[in-house]
Structure prediction request, 348 residues.
Amino acid sequence: MRYSHRRFNSGRGAALVALAVLFLVPAQSSGFDCYTVADSGNLLLEVDETNANETLIGNTASSLEAIALDPSSGILYGSNADQLGTLNLTTGAFTATSSDYGTGSGALGNINFDDVDGLGFSATTGDLYGSHRRSGSDVLIMIDESTGAHIPNAFGAGVDYVVISVAGGQDVDDLAIDPATDIMYAVVNDGGGVDAKLVTVNKSTGATTLVGDLETSGGDPVEDMEGIGIAPDSTLYGTTGFSGPSSTDDRLWIINKSTAVVTLIGAFSEGADYEAFDCNSELPATPTPTNTAVPPTSTPTDTPVPPTSTPTDTPVPPTSTPTDTPVPPTSTPTDTPVPPTSTPTDTP
Prediction:
């Protein structure tokens, strides 16, 4: 996963981006943890599911018919006939659990589970299933991975197994359970790997539904499909052994879950007779960046904001009211002489 970052226009924003770059989480790989077992040489190998390139882990020191990777713990389990065990992912060594699969009862009477050829984990429930090979129809059991014993009454009171009912009583070579849908798939064949088909299996009853013949888009049959496994993206992969046509021996394929048409990824080169295959079927958690600097929203600080202009001590001219303006008095004459009325006196 790649992280992108945005360029900020300001000098301060650019500095924050430069700081964030120092804490970016490295890009994550898209590959899955996929493994296979080559019966010739008892080799455990890690597989690049994109090109079939192998990395040798080591010798199992046991002849394993099936493997299954626990999606919750990452532990790789293997089946050696009547014994479940774990595989060391550093050395390849197989270590058997404390018990064998034991004997269980069901529709076909008591059966000793001494040849478990298929294993598959449900990523939804965490349950481990196994298919026991027998003459006639094979059976499905549930397994306690901590002890290696089958789980009694797994399918109801007194029902320790269910019959995998395939037309013609074909053998089950391996199991795989889709982590997205919890549907169980199985590859079946007419002994010796011929007439190979893909079916779905009801995990409660053992009833099967035919998906189709395992063949190329051109209609060429692909025989001896011995191992299948589903990756976290729900891609179904299969491995062929060495009992089919030489052009299809010891190869890795993608299987279309809807049609059973196969697509070649590549040929194996480290061993021969590839018996088993599985991938961790749990999607990896989305990486959570740690100490990743997230640039804050650019909020300037100490930026002066001009106040609303409110003038202070601004002189306001008063209304013009004149003071001490002389008002001329009303003209009132004073001491104005009035001529006396002429009154003659002493007239002769």
